[in-house]
Amino acid sequence: MTDNAPPPAMLAKAETLVEALPYLQRYAGATFVVKYGGHAMGDPELARDFAEDVVLLKAVGINPVVVHGGGPQIGSMLKRLGVESRFVDGLRVTDAETAEVAEMVLAGKINKEIVGWIGAAGGRAVGISGKDAGLVVAEKIGGKRAPNPDSGIERHVDLGFVGEPVRVDRKIIDTLSSAGIIPVIAPVGLGVDGHTYNINADTMAGAIAAALGASRLFLLTDVAGVLGKDGALLTDLTPADIGRLREDGTISGGMIPKLDTCVTAVEAGVDAAVILDGRVPHAMLLEIFTRRGAGTLVGRG
Ligand SMILES: Nc1ncnc2c1ncn2[C@@H]1O[C@H](COP(=O)(O)OP(=O)(O)O)[C@@H](O)[C@H]1O
Ligand SMILES: CC(=O)N[C@@H](CCC(=O)OP(=O)(O)O)C(=O)O
Hints:
By secondary structure, the protein is of the alpha/beta class. Helix content is 40%, strand content 24%.
């Protein structure tokens, strides 16, 4: 080493950038859909890190598209209004009042909060919901069988205004992305029947990733990834593995729509879907630009 060699800590920073080079080259021009879950949103410092990551992706020529959740935040607003939340297989039973509150919290409060964080990190974002410019047409999903909370007797439950995307018109996303703007999307859609539908945010992100032919779908949540029965992280899964985990009860609750989304997305052509720990600072950058993978990667198998 010569006398004017940089100190080791500086050198390590340069090495990190060099390590990122092949990934920067590989992903230039690619689209990454990032689902930011309600549970991952609690901490303001982590929210700032998340916004910085998204802005950095845009700055290096990747097109990030953010789809956000807000389940816990809808739950607390409903609680303030004296309405109890009920979930069946990770989906909120949504009557007309709940649908109204969900849209207020998702498209009003959380959507604009994320747009603000991205702005503060030096990026430009526009917040929309699936209702804007015909982005997402939703259809009511069929009911499910679930035990009655009081009697425990299993019966058919109508989920109300819970929809699934049946058509995605990508034009508004393309328009924003090509103008240097990061789209931030709330999981609400307009039904062909004119009703507003509450859509699980993972399902929404998967449908958008599929319509965009995204290279990656990242689902940021509040666990390290998919955990096995022994609590160990499952780093790589195929659609067939996921079928087995569902059958033997290893996965439950919100992890069910999350993994269903991963399977649908990779089967529709998305290269890989990754469940990432949103509690880890800069989890997304570490996953994308370093050799250390994180979380659970779902590939085509
Ligand atoms: N096998 C599993 N591994 C990890 N998490 C699981 C598993 N089965 C169920 N879960 C639950 O799924 C949750 C993640 O889904 P969800 O609460 O909907 O997150 P988000 O709000 O981020 O979308 C975890 O917090 C955990 O409680
Ligand atoms: C139908 C349905 O369950 N919709 C979700 C939408 C928000 C969401 O999915 O938020 P997270 O990603 O933070 O869980 C809900 O009402 O909670």
